Structures
1.
Amino acid sequence: MMIITVNKIMTGGSHLILLDYIINLSIFSLLVSTPLVIGSFIKHKFNQPFRNMKLWISLYAGVVSYILVMMSFQQDGYSYDIRYAPVILMFSYFGPIPGIITGGFALAARLLSSGNWYPAILGWTFIMVSFSLIYMFIKHYSTAKRNTYLFVTYLIVYVITVPILFNIFRNQPLFHLQYVLFVMLGVIIGSLLIESYVNLYKTIAERKKMEKTLAESEAKYRLIAENTSDLIMVLDHNQSVQYYSPSHQLVLGFDKGDLVEMDLGKLIHPDDSKMFGDCIKAMFENKGSITLEFRLIHKEGNAIEFESRCMPVKGNDDSIEHIVIVSRDISERKKAEEILLQSEKLSIVGELAAGVAHEIRNPLTTIKGFIQLYRSELGATKYNDLILSELERIEVITSELLSLGKPQAVKLDRVNLKDLLDDTLELLAPQANYDGIQFKMKSNGDAFPVIGEKNQIKQVFLNILKNSMESMENGGEIKIHLTKDQEGMCSISIEDEGCGIPEDLLPRLGEPFYSLKDKGTGLGIMICHKIIKQHHGSIHLSSMVNKGTIVEIKLPLVIE
């Protein structure tokens, strides 16, 4: 910094002195700001450069001190400048070693620029020792406090050494006051520049950290939303969809563009649309979460059942802005529940059969015997025949209940399915000829060996073939086809040309006491299911009204 000369003071050139200091403070501010501005363009974590580059920073501060000394003014062999402003800042921000390095540059510049080395070296030594000692007590303080303590220390050392100890311009207190005030101003300006940079950089760093955290969080949620099999949907107040998760495309078969343009009402099953709309409307009013079951329409037209958890999302004013709906396909679960229900029904029927069959059969036999005796004595009447017919029907039901509910000893043997079918068709041939029905059997071989109970499997064939024959009032053909597949299974397909079964009634076939025939018990198909299941196979029915029914049975073949 420029030195305030006595001549200027004595000649009333105070305005020139002020101008010199302003110029030097401006240059000092520029030198402090330059590395901060350059540093703002360098990507780094804050404090890392300060910790790892103390040496370079202290060298740069020393250069700044050197430049300030070179711009100083001489008065009677003494130089005056504000070189101690960067020294104070270095001690305050980086500690004694960087501060001493910076002070060393300042001392070297001072010794090269003017004489009077003794007071310069002695004053410098006092200041460095004082700064080092005071720093030990203030290093945990804030930078503002450290700057204050260091400047006060400098002020005390300056007053003791310059005007008192060395008797330099002792009669010019205004000169010394101006000098220390401008040194203080240099410290204040430098610290303000550094603190502004630090605070700005911290703000930017915190903002970047928040943005990074937000981006990472968003990426995680997006990763979950875009890779889950559940359907995630976001609705607004107008029940317009703001977001469809990609799983909608996979589960429902629609393209992303089709989903965006499609009205939600067209996606929901018509029977569930009103219920869904009312529930969503109530959620916006009541602000509570609910669980719904509704159906969505697949691109191909079939309905898929979903269980959905609907959760409201509140805005700043505590009102509901959006509703997030997470839906899961429960079609398989529904099927499993139906199978479980069917199994429970079978179990109940089995328990009932054990008691009912025994309780009914004994008095039934007695009643039937007396009616037959009565008919033989008094002659046949239409009422006797009707009673006996109904009693025989009750016997059939009781026998089927017994076969269903009573555990039977099963003898497993190696059985050829083709031979069993031949025997069954031979047994039914007279009735088939009488009804104008022809059996046509095809097979891609003669050997279809399975392990099973011969009579049970034969009973399955009898039940199914009799059902087919009873459905063909006008006669026709029944096609039986035996094939082997690559999975080691034998497929027996029985196709008739009967009246067929409505599609909506097919799922109920196999339920106990449910039959489409006037005098059917509903137990025949159920028994067939039970027998095939016991033989580790499967049975499947498909039908079209007035075109016929196809029954496909699969049983595991014996591996040769």
Note: The two ends are 107 Å apart (CA to CA).
2.
Amino acid sequence: MESVIQEKGSLSIHTENIFPIIKKFLYSDHEIFLRELVSNAVDASQKIKKLASYGEYNGELGELKVVVKLDKDAKTITISDNGIGMTADEIKKYINQIAFSGATEFVEKYKDKGEDGKIIGHFGLGFYSAYMVASNVEIITKSYKEGSEAVRWICDGSTEYELSSVEKEERGSDIILHIAEDSEEFLESYRLKGILEKYGKFLPIQIEFEEKIINNTNPIWTKSPSDLKDEDYLAFYKELHPYSEDPLFWIHLNVDYPFNLTGVLYFPKLKNDFQGQREKIQLYSRQVFITDEVKDIVPDFLQLLHGVIDSPDIPLNVSRSYLQADGNVKKINGYITRKVGDKLSEIFRNDREGFEKKFDDIGLFVKYGIISDDKFYEKAKDFCLLKNVDGKYFTFEEYREFVKANQTDKNDTQVWLYTSDEKKQDAFVQSARKRSYDVLSLSSVIDSHFINALEQKLEKISVKRVDADTLDKLIEKEVALESVLSTEDQDTVKKLFEEVAGSKSAHVQVEAMPVDELPVVITFPEFMRRMTDMQATSGQKSMFGDMPLMYTVSLNANHPLISRILHAENAEDQKTLAKQVYDLALLSQGLLTGTDLTQFIQRTVGAM
């Protein structure tokens, strides 16, 4: 393509080393050059569309499209659009005069910021991101304005440029990147396709690469909810997460004051590993992908949701410090929390039965919100459900009324009993049921934290695991049972079991319990178990280190077996019987393992 040089000149910048600075400070994000250039091309296409709608352009619009071409042999990438194009004067204005406050200031301000250096857009450097991968960049462009001549601009990364006239029939721009040696990874089609699909999957103008359109120009969050059916939302979810189960339900966000925000958030079926569920919300700005690290925009507990958020109030190139300080971001955060709370309240009020069926899947999310966000708790306390071992669901207030008569202790505090493993703690659950006590099922990965939150937020409520102590100590009443054993017998049986336990971690005590309770009950203090569970959930090492957990061995003074042990013919028989009963108690807590378990089985089989 021949051209006549009309002008040579220098770019209006404050220092000659701007391009090395761009490359150095934005290197970790070097793939975004394609996002920036394609976004510019999309903007140019949308502008011609608007001008036509205003009656300021009367020519044929044609099919608006951005085409990305790779020429591996020539080592070029070309981004073409048929948008508004530029005149020679506009190139001088928008390309030659870099909207930049000074490279020196840039270096000083961001040299210690690490990842926060990704801020091209703030300084009008979108086009110049091309120089992160290109040694030479050409622009061939023709303005939509009547009588405009096509022009060619070329710059090799120094501050020198050439501007010349050129032949070009159609309006629009071609940006031709001559790829540098250290960036030849971008001359692979799979690499370009991956970047285009990542950042441009939902751009509003068609993007063509290798003769295929790679984007959905009209995703559902740009449409009115009244124009959409459930199938549309489910189909879009599959587009985002093709291998996931269908979501439980969703929220369509749409607000234009005091900030602009659209999007769709889905409630997935959560697994018991909430760490693995994160980073499933994608943040867009005018349908251009920004990031899936939405920590400062979306409250922590809502990061368990999936979906998209789009806000033009958040710039494309955004730093963490910007997100943390920006007022709009904080408002968006609060708005999303409120909308999620309102949606869950609405479902609970309108379809209690359906909500209960979903609660096992969303309970982890709701509990996480209660633990971490006080504003969410104010709404969630009315729809967060507790489930007992019979599979019945209660709100907090419903459960308070349900157990009030039977599970209020002598200090007028309600004791809510729970199990974290119904099979393992079955003996303790059955003992509680004999007393007509109700037992909650709290077995999710964050329930140790949730229990703490309940005790802090609900007055005169104490939550205890059903095997944390003997029932008479878990729920202390005014009337205490009397022991059938004399003080001397109690001392004898206590010493016998201390010898059988043979561990400094075991604290042996004799208690007066009902006759139908277990003869020996092994329990762990609630505070110690809960602290250990919470630290395990957080991935921290136990504060108790490698020390064995202290546990209590409670001997039921009123159980016939204890009396039988005391009245055995000789000391050897006493010890054998005590060992057998003690091992059964260990077995019920999962504490009998290895050689001890093998010997127990052999003794049991031998006695049959």
Note: The two ends are 99 Å apart (CA to CA).
3.
Amino acid sequence: MTERVDRAGLQVAAPLANFLEECALPGSGVAPDAFWRGVADIFARFAPENAALLATRDALQARIDAWHRERAGRPIDAAEYQAFLREIGYLVDEPAPFTIAPGAVDDEVACIAGPQLVVPILNARFLLNAANARWGSLYDALYGTDAIPGAAAGKGYDAARGAQVIAWAKAFLDRAVPLASGSWAAFAGGEPALADPAQLVGRAGDTLLFRHHGLHIELVVDRTHPIGRDDPAGIADMILESAVSTICDLEDSVAAVDAEDKVAAYANWLGLMRGDLEETFEKNGQPLTRRLNPDRSYTAPDGSAVTLPGRSLLFVRNVGHLMTTPALLLTDGREAPEGILDAIVTSLIGLHDVNGARTNSRAGAIYIVKPKMHGPEEAAFTDRLFDAVEDLLGLKRHTIKVGVMDEERRTSANLAACIHAVRNRVVFINTGFLDRTGDELHTSMLAGPMIRKGDMKGADWIKAYEDRNVQIGLACGLAGRAQIGKGMWAAPDRMADMLEQKIAHPRSGATTAWVPSPTAATLHATHYHAVDVSARQEERRAEPVASLERLLTVPVAHGHNWSPQDIADELENNAQGILGYVVRWVDQGVGCSKVPDIHDVGLMEDRATLRISSQHIANWLVHGVASAAEVDAAFTKMAAKVDAQNAGDPLYRPIAGNEETSLAFQAARALVFEGATQPNGYTEPLLHRFRQRVKAG
């Protein structure tokens, strides 16, 4: 039983109280007594409203379920459907034209287009890798991946592979920083004559710094280096500005179920904001300590000093409105809304940067991504909550910026109104195909059996969703003021495919898109040199916004008769993905990892992918496409598959043959068999329940 202490009538878990009073508050300028009184006031004001918003979600879902139940077996009339959604308040009126005004924001948010990492905040080593991924070696990224055909031979340096890498990189440089004549492949060194001399913006010794489309390229010239000594120009490496920003995630990629977990997460965020986070680990039998990289210094052509950030601009993603946390109990003894606690604590920690050296935000902002909001009413709630936190911490209004995850159906259907609700602090919108699909499945659970999961990406509502996100964002003035983002590339070992496909994101007019690793960030950065995102946004401004009717088209499989094998394949694919993720979450507390899929391809999985798979099977159960026995058979068969895929993990607990005792297996089943009744189809309530049981022994 966790010890609790009384603070202004709140019952606070001792580990959280100790962390706040001994680590987070000192140096913040906020007195502990005033802090706790303010925290109690915020919970008294906002916890009841948070509960009311969740009740509204449930009420709307009940009305939608009843509407579909009454029309079972009939095609959905688009006009009738929209009229119904407006009648119940699911759809709201569009706001009059407006332009967002978030105030002082960093260039990485307003005007630099480039890759974005999302990293679990509980893993300090991953956090440091991500923060330091602002700069990455293109040579290394190409050499060690399948980005270009072939692979290095042997354990030492493979000169043939190296030549292949250098040729690719110099061809890239020809496109991004062309010479006045000739190719970089033939460049013999000395002063480069550029087609646009203004692209040379700095030097550090013999190393040259170029800028293209707002991103920097560092050409490392070192004739003593093993690579540089064999290069005609002495080029030893090509360093790209890569992960321009990083989201440090408290939400879908972590398993934080109690006060101890929350404190560990908050402590890592504090280390980042103070700049003193470090992690020591063993590599090749030797201890290695990783720290945050310093800034990078150059001399401009006019002799002035040039300093560039050495690290990604860091956002923190709070949890949504749904979950509560045992880390703090309200005056009535109930668990506190976790999202409110996150807003208070992560902003308090942000003071160490804002009022300190500003090693993260030179503009003096605190960047919080807010996920899983349903509609403008919930966005407005977040805006008022952040007002209250600013007042508590003595911050100027709108110091706390917000990123709106456009990942729930009621938000994407009312996106302009959602942006309007946070127009003075919004710095980010993005599409999240995975959660958005999960919400699509749950919202329309009773409309009919859904198309197969693999067919979802080709559905017309997805295309409308992706288009509307950019089109509405541009109409609301996000260009030059805020990020418009796109979702994750989930296959970290398939960089050739990523290079071929993910260029679609900057071509869409999005200023950023998620990648799964620092290496992927460096490779994806080449796309932002290939596409002038600002020019692409200007082109897209003229487009009409994709219709709401297309967005609201429910992906029901009308008149589709799947074969028994089709059904078995779909169930097994979903069951394997569920088990592979849940067994790590529940048994080991791993919220995001590379999980082999049914074909043994490693995919980055988090709760969003789990939400789709569990809701899809739940939908097929509801409509009789599959029986409970068939689902159980798929789980049992896939348990053996997942055990085999995890055979090399010494911490892994086998589930095949232990189905009755494995809490992970029971959690996986519950996510499906209780899926139709979970709030909005979210997986968190069940995952937390089973993880807490594992931690309790």
Note: The CA atoms of residues 277 and 436 lie 34 Å apart.
4.
Amino acid sequence: MDRATNEVWWAEGDTPVHNDSRVTYFVDGEAVLLEMCLCFMRATQSIYLANWGMEPDLLLARGEALLVEQSNADTQAAYCDYLRSQGLQQADIDFWQSNHLTVRNVLAHALSKGIEVKVLLWKANKTFAVYDPQAASDKLIEKGITCLLDTSAEGILHHQIESLHQKVTVVDHSIAFVGGVDPLIEKEEDFDRWDTNAHIFDTPLRRTDSGKTPHGWHDTHAKIEGPAAGDVELNFRQRWNDVIEHQHLDNQLLIPEHPTPAPVESQSIMQIARTVPKHTYHFNKEAIQGITQLYDHALSNVQHFLYIENQYLWLRAYYGVDISLMGQDSPEMKGHLRQIVAALRRGASMSILLPDHPNVGRAFTDAALTILRTEVPEAVTEGRLNAFCLATSQYKMSDGLIHYRPIYVHSKAAIVDDLWSTVGSANLNNRGMRDDTEINVATLDRSLAYGLRLLLQAEHLGLLKHDELYAAARYYRQEQFPDDKRAQAEQAFQHIEAALSDPRQAIQLMSQRAQENLQHYKDRQPLNGHLLPYLTAKEATEQGLNFRQDHGWIEEPEN
């Protein structure tokens, strides 16, 4: 049976399904922020960004890519050759060589070439904000960039923590990005979204002015080309124009409709889907809930396995009180957990990657996992239901001990049977499914889903060194290489494919590695890769670990 045509996968009533658009997945901030930077440099018409948060001084490119701090002439020359191969003009390469590639510097460079640049930022409630929207806006406006603060989630019809959570980029009306990565470093100098697949404990590439390295940050993002990029621009245009009209701003700022981007060759069937609460914008008379529809269909179609990475897994709706027994069940999440239970009872496997120290709602996730384990105990005993978290370790000469830090799992990715996959901004909770403004892309494409799973699992297991995994990811994305480098990248991808091609064996390997690392943690030994079991508060306490509700069990107390 052709599952792509004989099973229902898609959301209805908002955006069309495409077979003429291309989707490319990126893992972690280093890769996707560099790709965005390249796209900004190549732009000839327009750049639109809509973000939950932004730090205009965030560096989009670092390490060998930050040529202004690169003293080795041969390295500089080689990287300039790479930039030429990526389609950059000499003037852009000169700019790349002589400037720090911060968000606002790169956008201002585009603006200086006559490119239309517009930025839409959520005006976050000061009580809950992790960045200063006005300060970010001021930094952009200083460079001549048009920036609006979106207040659409404010008012008596909205709960006080409703957020405009999309992370949207559109370049030249034909290339778009959606996913989990905001160009942001939070205001306490922690949680820098730029991170490598190595998630190093302490590195000058991420060190702040105070001398500390922010917690590691694991994320996923997607690039969309072709007519579906027009659906992402439609989303941006609707939101932007709504803000112009609602705030009674100059009508000259309105964005007109542009022609649909030209089709591109693709083996994917895909769709852009949104969550937009009722009363948030004037363009939607009723709530838009396309993302929960996507999950509804995909979870019902699980035959063999479900792989999830998410910041949360909540049944109960969270509205600012971090007590899992309070509040009502989210009807969308109640349905999704029921679908997961049904899949497990059919004999399918599920593995989920979660942060040990989410910003809120640790007990909410514990409660949802406990429901799954209670409803299908045989899946636990048979090793078909696994939950993991991530951490990094480092030896410190100051005390001669191994130290540990959790890696923040912010990725919102899901894979069903190496066939269907989604990446976006929506978390598995009431907010992602109903109460916040979100955007995801979903695809039916075996090679795309399969490759994404391999790269994610290889990273968590530590199967390859940073440079090797980075090259394997570029090979998966079908990027151009010099002949000698291409052979090395292909070999790296084949290495992880040999280890992980069977999804059940891959999960067994992850489970084994997580348990080994738990023992390493207890014995104060270095971790092998980043995997640890996700332990509920009860489980961590029973094992004698130092669990704290606000920090999880991995984080070490500050001296």
Note: Residues 173 and 295 are 28 Å apart (CA to CA).
